[in-house]
Amino acid sequence: MNLIKQRLVTFFQAYPKDALYFMAASFMNATGKAILWPLTTLYVHEVLGRSYGEAGMVLLYQALAGIAGEFAGGALYHRLGAKTLIVSSMALSACLLGSIVFVDDYWLFVALVCVNGFMNGIAVPSINAYVGFRWKEYRRKLYNAIYVGNNTGLAIGAALGGLIASFSFPLTYAVTSVSTFAFAVFLFFFMKPASHDDDYPAAASSALDGNGDGSVLRNLLNVRVYLFLGLGALFYYISFTLWSNGIAPYLTEQGYPLTMYSLLWTINGIVIFAGQPVTNFIKSTIAKSLVAQIVMSSSCYALGLGFILLFHQGYLFLVIGMIVCTIGEMLLLPAIPTFYSERTGKAAPFFMGLSGGFGNTGRMTGPTLYGNVYDHWGVVPVLVIGTCASVISVGFFLIHASLHKEKASLTQRQAVTY
């Protein structure tokens, strides 16, 4: 008990007080968002009376809107300012979610969900960039801590969502609307409207200026910064969606109850929360630079899925594969925003949005691909495709690492110019 108390004290002392407030608010927001995460498909089918195929199309439209939102959020960060962009997008998202409670028309529901997806897409790269700019001396630890906290919130929120939906499906949207609005109010009072001009070196600002006419085009043409990292993320997320669109139906087909699939994600959450010493060891020994961590992450995912491909007949082997894949996830997801914050200076929001668009394309492609393959040929081809996608992501991340190898030794306080 004293050891736990000591670790908590050490954790709280490691960050500025305002960063701790932000992490707590982010955790609450993630918990609220996760209430809806597993329930949109059921809401469309049970409440609106539409088929599961139509529910899948709603998720597709929402994902497309999210991709557009990530691009927009990255491009508008410096034009509108972080506070205006983030607070307004979160407040509008809260209003849209609240209005869904009173909607029973399918197409109006689709329109509201898509606009909400766009608003959420705007917020993601903007919040990541804000964290990197405001707490640049702590951002490596902060991105990781926020990732762990948000995933804990996702686990709690998903469990609460099922409980709330058992009373009322529309109530899930109302609760999420309230949590989102509370986060917007917190950010309104918390965020400083001051410029970030002093938050990155002048060299980085001049080389990758996020403002001014033509800057978006210049950044798009600077493909060595984002293209291979983005393509690697795209194929990583194609492999990531295998769990819900390959493993889930396979377990059902084998006669396992749904709780056994849920247990895999419970294990995922436990590993994320308790497995920090493992990833810290990897970062201090095998993968000391950010680009090395990114390569190692996809290597772990390929290893985990390859293991499942060979030994998927037993549930215990699925658990082992999930643990290995989760370690890869823990290495990758905090590393991407950290890379852009440290390496691209003022243009970080744009590149975060661009990279997020690649990742969402992978999330959108995987379910359709795996669903069709599973229907025709079963789980083995699905596992082959997922493993191959992970291997391809390793290849793209290796190309990205080779392009930035000479920069790997820079400290987190520096920004690289290109």
From TrEMBL:
Coiled coil: none
Subcellular location field: Cell membrane
Alphabetical list of SUPFAM superfamilies matching this protein: MFS general substrate transporter
Keyword list, A-Z: Cell membrane, Membrane, Transmembrane, Transmembrane helix, Transport
Gene3D superfamilies per UniProt: MFS general substrate transporter like domains
Transmembrane segments: 20-39, 59-77, 84-103, 109-133, 145-165, 171-190, 225-246, 258-278, 290-309, 315-336, 348-366, 378-399
Domain Major facilitator superfamily (MFS) profile: 18-405
Pfam families referenced in this protein's UniProt entry, alphabetically: MFS_1
UniProt topology in membrane: Multi-pass membrane protein
Listed GO MF terms: transmembrane transporter activity
Keyword Signal part of the UniProt annotation: no
Cross-referenced InterPro entries: MFS, MFS_dom, MFS_trans_sf, MFS_Transporters
GO annotations of cellular component type: plasma membrane
Descriptive protein name: MFS transporter
Native source species: Paenibacillus piri
